[in-house]
Amino acid sequence: MTREPLLLTPGPTLVPETVREALGRPMVHHRTPEFQAVLKEVGQDLKQLFGTREEALILTSSGTGAMEAAVTGLLSPGEKALVIRGGKFGERWAEICQAYGIQVVPLDVPWGEPLDLGQLTALLKAHADVRAVLTTLCETSTGVLFPIREIREAIGKAGPLLVVDAISGLGADELQMDAWGVDAVVCGSQKGLMLPPGLAFAALSPRAWEAVARSKTSGYYFSLKRARKAWEKTDTPFTPAISLIVGLREALKTILAEGVAESCRRHQADAAYTRQQVKKLGWTLFVDGPHASSAVTSIRVPEGVDGKGVLKRLRARGIFLAGGQGELTGKIFRIASMGAVTRAHIDTALTALAEELKTASEAVRHG
Amino acid sequence: MTREPLLLTPGPTLVPETVREALGRPMVHHRTPEFQAVLKEVGQDLKQLFGTREEALILTSSGTGAMEAAVTGLLSPGEKALVIRGGKFGERWAEICQAYGIQVVPLDVPWGEPLDLGQLTALLKAHADVRAVLTTLCETSTGVLFPIREIREAIGKAGPLLVVDAISGLGADELQMDAWGVDAVVCGSQKGLMLPPGLAFAALSPRAWEAVARSKTSGYYFSLKRARKAWEKTDTPFTPAISLIVGLREALKTILAEGVAESCRRHQADAAYTRQQVKKLGWTLFVDGPHASSAVTSIRVPEGVDGKGVLKRLRARGIFLAGGQGELTGKIFRIASMGAVTRAHIDTALTALAEELKTASEAVRHG
């Protein structure tokens, strides 16, 4: 393929040319004053992105690694975590807990539906010994945005720790860690941050750091204690993904030049525009209304249409959308608006999708 | 700095331009037939590099992640592992075991010295319940090469599993996984593979896979079971570091065009040349003889010389060597010959080191 692939998948997303140039620079050593300057700069910028005064630690892994670091850092075997499961990534929180012997109190939200805050309050009342509530900002598998501020209010300030997977949401859906009283936020590089995958991030509140000091869970590579100790000396415990961090500096520069709040407003407008166009085209949104994420939009695959085939034909045209995962396999299309995606990209994708759906529908009618 | 840094550190190493170009290409999605073709190709090439018929799995992490995957995959809490500790990375094996409640039977080799095989045999006799022997191919912190084939012979074919950290050695020091009867080999991307850090690899023997089926250790991200299951469908369990895998394809092409055996022979000759030049220059090698690695050469810092200061001045000239770690801090210089390093690079580094040592020695004499 000669043309750049139009990547409107909810991760990985388009990587801007300034970032790509940085990724291909000659290698530098990580234990040098020059690289420490980069770490300091990205550290400051990440704080702004997370909306926190605390440090945002950098891990070399996919976003799941940061989720594991949060679970193993904050909880101990036998302790209880309430997990909001409204999609594949909510389920992932539960799987990680189970892998480490942490008891899961599930709050199952039908995929695509908004969270029932009353149900959360009732569950917390029934399980007074829950140590942490694990949730997702944008549930990438469905396109649902979970109301983090409202969840904190429902939990109460002195309640369990609030841990948020903002892997795909950060930079697109608003999240103010300190102001909203979030105790742990994890993020990945290949979504709103417009980088290739390979980096993950975790920021913790002072209350969460106290929990880390108490945790008895095993773990080595994903130890937040070890990461924090190294970070205090502007270092990482293990060799970091140097080229991605050099690229991260460029990506964060771009995001902060626009401003985090402005970036979220733009994403919100772009996602609203996408939903509006989808409705104009006569398709059905899988998620609509205030619980629709600004990072990714989900559209129902029309009855009788081979969704996978449509995605394949789009791919042959250099346009990459995602299908459904888990129980939504073959049932939805997902279009990301996060990161470097513009309205022109969205228009191109929707036009192409309309053409392919027309062909597919005709095949259904004549088939 | 306008000139490319001359990176002769034992990781990260120089990244060739063909690889850097691949790293900066437009992002592609990992769950596409196009990327699966890349995974298949690098999978085949990795097998050749490891000298195995088994699959070499790809993890997104530093090399330490693959070490953790091996420990948690092969052993269960309470079981015994014999750890050959002759430097910082041997110590890391022990630390990971301890983090997961695995009993460590240490075999401490003085840093820089060769392994005493008789000591290994005696320890194994005294601890008949050892389930695995964990060792290092090239102990990067000292420059010592451990005799993997002889270790296997000492253990016996039916003996404990033999697990080798070949993170810095692979591609420079010979390692034939299948022929030598090694049960698990782990590797990292930023050493002999001439890539930025961020990828790790693990290959297991059929006997090791049986152990994985039995292991009761916790873990999620570094689960070899999960990685293998995904790999069977030409996939990874979590989003992989896509750009690094695209770069990996280029790096492996280069290595296999030369041939693994030929690459090892070249590295051996280059390391021997380095040691010869070091002696000609009147300095003392920290490791010499058959237990000197072909990946990295260690030189004693002359009496009274500020080793850190010398490295700093070399750095200002764009030449990056490493100092000692742990108990060797300030006591040695380390020059890597692995990956894309040429004799011309080695000559440049040694000439510059000679100049800086002359200045430093004069300062000592006149100080």
In short:
Chain A is of the alpha/beta class and 367 residues long. The first copy, chain A, has helices spanning 17-23, 33-50, 63-74, 88-99, 117-126, 148-155, 177-180, 206-214, 224-231, 242-258, 260-280, 307-316, 343-366, and strands at 6-7, 56-60, 80-85, 103-108, 130-136, 138-139, 144-145, 161-165, 184-188, 199-204, 296-300, 319-320, 322-323, 332-336.
Structural commentary:
The structure is a homodimer of 367-residue chains. In chain A, helix 7 links the parallel strand 8 (161-165) and strand 9. The mean pLDDT of chain A is 97. In chain A, helix 5 runs parallel beside helix 6 (148-155). Chain A is α/β, with parallel strands linked by helices. Chain A has helices at 17-23, 33-50, 63-74, 88-99, 117-126, 148-155, 177-180, 206-214, 224-231, 242-258, 260-280, 307-316, 343-366, and strands spanning 6-7, 56-60, 80-85, 103-108, 130-136, 138-139, 144-145, 161-165, 184-188, 199-204, 296-300, 319-320, 322-323, 332-336. Chain A has two domains: 6-12 and 260-366, Aspartate Aminotransferase, domain 1; 17-257, 3-Layer(aba) Sandwich (Aspartate Aminotransferase, domain 2), CATH 3.40.640. Chain A is globular. Chain A has a seven-stranded mixed sheet, with helices on both faces. A three-stranded antiparallel sheet of chain A has the order 11-14-13, covered by helices on one side. A two-stranded parallel sheet of chain A has the order 1-12. Chain A is built from 13 helices and 14 strands. Helices cover 44% and strands 16% of the residues of chain A. The two termini of chain A are 32 Å apart. At the A-B interface, helix 1, helix 3, helix 4 and helix 10 of A face helix 1, helix 3, helix 4 and helix 10 of B.
